[in-house]
Amino acid sequence: MSASNDRQLGTVVDEVGRQLKERGRAARRREGERDTGWMLLDYGEIVVHAFTEEQRAFYDLERLWGDAPAFSYAGTARAEGVVAGDR
Q1: Is residue 27 part of a domain?
Q2: Contact, 65 vs 16, CB < 8 A?
Q3: pLDDT digits (tens, 9 = 90+) for 46-66
Q4: Could you give the CA distance from residue 42 to residue 31 in angstroms, rounded to a whole number?
Q5: Cα(22)–Cα(55) distance, rounded to whole angstroms?
Q6: CATH code at 19?
Q7: What is the pLDDT of residues 16-51, one digit of tens each?
Q8: Residue 25: helix, strand or coil by DSSP?
Q9: 62 belongs to a structural domain
Q10: I need a labelling partner for 53 at 20 to 30 A (CA). Which of 2, 60, 61, 78 fits?
Q11: Quick check: 10 pLDDT over 70?
Q12: Residue 84 belongs to some domain of the structure
């Protein structure tokens, strides 16, 4: 997922963590900080890569993971029962 700035990045990552915790899931690992422009939450079979738009363009994960299957999620996390992503 992408965020416009560091503050928004932290807010979105905190919300992902909160919603997954409500569902009984705890992150195995968390890396990065708001002010670095990227954060990663590792839930085992779910890995959340969160970037500012600038860092997302720099790391270009879509290119690195180009051969992996992509899944899209529509709607909101609360409406769909999942944490929404933009890929």
Answers
A1: yes
A2: no
A3: 889 999 999 999 989 888 888
A4: 9
A5: 29
A6: 3.30.460.10
A7: 999 999 999 999 999 999 899 999 999 998 889 999
A8: coil
A9: yes
A10: 78
A11: yes
A12: no
